[in-house]
Amino acid sequence: MPKLSVIVPFYNVQQYAPDTLRSLRLNARPDFEFVLVDDHSKDETPDILERAVEELSDVAQVRYVRHEKNGGLATARNTGLDASSGEYLTFLDGDDWVAPGYYEQLVAAMEKLDCDFIRTDHVQATARSRSVHRVPHGRRWEVMNPREAILPAYRTTSVDYAYAWAGAYHRRLLEKGLLHFTDGLRTAEDRPWIWKLHREAESFAVVSLLGVFYRRGVASSLTQIGDVRQLDFIRAFDQVIEETALDPDAERLLPKAVRTYCAIIAHHLADDSKWEPAVAKQLRSMSAAAIQRMPQEALGDVLDTMDLRRSSKLRRLRRRITTAKAAA
């Protein structure tokens, strides 16, 4: 069994894939496994990966899978999970990279702490600018119950730091069905995933390791494109609400889920310039319907305590559906 499996989905990233693959080589060990998944790229990415498989096979174990049709990041990660065999697992996106020796430190942290999963800080890279982003959790190198890191509702917590590649995960989580993503989600795929981990895993820790470089501002990234695929965040957060509502501790946890959902809706509504006109209209309609589906008591509390700018926007959406129903 490999000590660590690194799952790396690629899609149309010919400009960045060489940096990603070079960083893997600088982290290679014979007991590390690199699972490369091409999500049916239409550029030169598959050729780059085929050459890399030969080169990486000299220094690590390598698996290469190519999708016959594009399925999105969540589906590609699931393919990688199914193909992996490591004791520990982590993720990397095909346009990001890691510092030399980072994965060895990640494995050492997992072995030292012996918990279900660990979370790490990361560096955001925008053009030549670099900024450090830390896990919003103060206690470091201490094994804790992940459920206790969900709250408080009014503060940014570990479930808001949803980056799957910022951490490592024991294989027992995969065997328990906690590591797969919701198939087909094109964006916000990390959100139901991180909530499930925090609700159902038994132990986690935050460690002060800095080695993942997250590339922002990539033109082909869905975060930069205002098309209909971005609206999958509604489906993702609906899942968070539905699954959290079934939790034995739902009364305590739902206010946090509702507050986060409302904040994300307000964020997208405020960013008018990035949306295609038809998608902007659909966003408003779907957001209004989502607000009606939320637990209304928790929603009322959230709107009463949220800042005026965002709460006013969300209240207008809420009234829009209520008025429409009354007219009907």
Explain how this protein is built.
- By secondary structure, the protein is α/β, with parallel strands linked by helices.
- It contains eleven helices and nine strands.
- Strands 1, 2, 3, 4, 5, 6, 7, 8 and 9 form a nine-stranded mixed beta sheet that branches.
- Helix 6 runs parallel beside helix 7 and helix 7 (232-245) packs antiparallel against helix 8.
- 44% of the residues are buried.
- The mean pLDDT is 94.
Number of strands: 9
Main beta sheet, described? 9 strands, mixed
Helical run tally: 11
**Rounded radius of gyration (Å):** 20 Å
Q: Structural class, from secondary structure content?
A: alpha/beta
Oligomer: single chain
* Beta-strand percent range: 15-25%
User: Terminal Cα separation, in Å?
Assistant: 62 Å
Helix/strand order: EHEHEHEEHEEEHHEHHHHH
Q: Average pLDDT value?
A: 94
Shape, per Cα inertia axes: globular
Which segments are poorly predicted (pLDDT under 50) over 5 or more consecutive residues? none
Give helix % range: 40-55%
List strands and helices in order, with pairings:
Blueprint: E1 4-10, H1 17-25, E2 32-38, H2 45-56, E3 61-66, H3 73-83, E4 88-91, E5 97-98, H4 102-113, E6 117-126, E7 129-133, E8 167-170, H5 171-175, H6 190-200, E9 204-216, H7 232-245, H8 250-270, H9 277-293, H10 296-305, H11 308-327
Parallel strand pairs: 1-2, 1-4, 2-3, 6-9
Antiparallel strand pairs: 4-8, 5-9, 6-7, 6-8
Helix pairs in contact: 1-2, 6-7, 7-8, 8-9, 8-10, 8-11, 9-11, 10-11
